[in-house]
Amino acid sequence: MGMGKRFRTYGWLGLLASVWVTGCDEAPSANRQEDPCAEPLSLRVHVVSSDGAFIQGATVTATNLESNVSITGVTDDRGLTTAINEHLAPSPIRVVATAGSHVTPAERVEWTCDACHCTPVPAELTLEMRD
């Protein structure tokens, strides 16, 4: 009889623990919100031809002018890449795009930093391929 009573006690505790865990999972919590500082801010870079058409597949490279660290991205069907991000901050960066033998003039981007993020200045670039 002692075994049956012990089993019922543990069964009850298991059920109680199960309800408690489920209740916690469904409860709203401030900790469930994503950390606004976790996701790095990106520089939007469009690459266009001299007549203004978007260039898909262009390689965009941003290089930190002090550390020489680079990030490279490839443009999508809208001529856009957002691969360049604040991991290159806070030093200025040089941004250039290439497609085949064509190269854009280099652009300089600065950063404005706060306690959470570094924002690119300008926040968006349009690089034009030279013929």
Number of H/I helices? 1
- The residue ranges in which pLDDT falls below 50 over 5 or more consecutive positions are 5-29
Strand content: 25-35%
**Secondary-structure content class:** alpha+beta
Instruction: Give the SSE string.
Output: HEEEEEEEEE
Shape: globular
Proportion of residues in helical segments:
10-25%
Q: Total number of β-strand segments? A: 9
What integer is the average pLDDT? 83
Determine the N-to-C terminus distance: 92 Å
Radius of gyration using CA atoms only: 26 Å
Explain the overall architecture:
- With about 130 residues, the protein is of the alpha+beta class.
- Helices cover about 20% and strands about 35% of the residues.
- The strands form two sheets. Strands 2, 3, 5, 6, 7 and 8 form a six-stranded antiparallel β-sheet that branches.
- The longest helix has 25 residues, at about 1-25.
- The radius of gyration is 26 Å and the shape is globular.
- This is Carboxypeptidase regulatory-like domain-containing protein.
Topology:
Layout: H1 2-26, E1 44-48, E2 59-64, E3 70-74, E4 80-81, E5 93-99, E6 102-103, E7 107-113, E8 118-121, E9 124-128
Parallel strand pairs: 1-9
Antiparallel strand pairs: 1-4, 2-3, 2-5, 5-6, 5-7, 7-8
In short:
This protein is α+β, with helices and mostly antiparallel strands and 131 residues long. The chain is built from 1 helix and 9 strands; from the N terminus they run αβββββββββ. The protein starts with a helix and ends with a strand.
Search tags:
single chain, 131 residues, alpha+beta, 6-stranded antiparallel sheet, 3-stranded mixed sheet, 1 helix, Carboxypeptidase regulatory-like domain-containing protein
